[in-house]
Design a protein that fits this description.
Blueprint (H helix, E strand, L loop, with lengths): L27 H8 L4 E2 H5 L7 H13 L3 E6 L3 E6 L1 H4 L2 H13 L1 H9 L1
Antiparallel strand pairs: 1-3, 2-3
Length: 115
Amino acid sequence: MTKPLDPDMFDPACPSDLAPIRFGDKWAGMIIRCLEDGPRRFSELRVPLHGITAKVLAGSLRTLTRNGLITRTVHPAQRVEYALTPLGRSMIEPMNAVCEWTWEHWDEILDAREA
């Protein structure tokens, strides 16, 4: 069993909003991060994704599934889990590079936005 997701894993001041490169929609990169350590249920994903509605999360999950980045598995008793596919897992390294670049250029990005 994977440990519960940290409700504060996405700090409101996180540079995910500042990264000039986006992986899918606004939430796709964060969903991939949530699935990095193993499968998760819909309700588990909502914990760290503050501000996302059930409708938007469902749409993002459908898009990620359609693009082959995650799988949706229905278990007995209608328990549904989402997990990264090998293709989805291959997104982690490029995402790490973008996050690192964003942290390195955080001040420059903020200055440019304020200008």
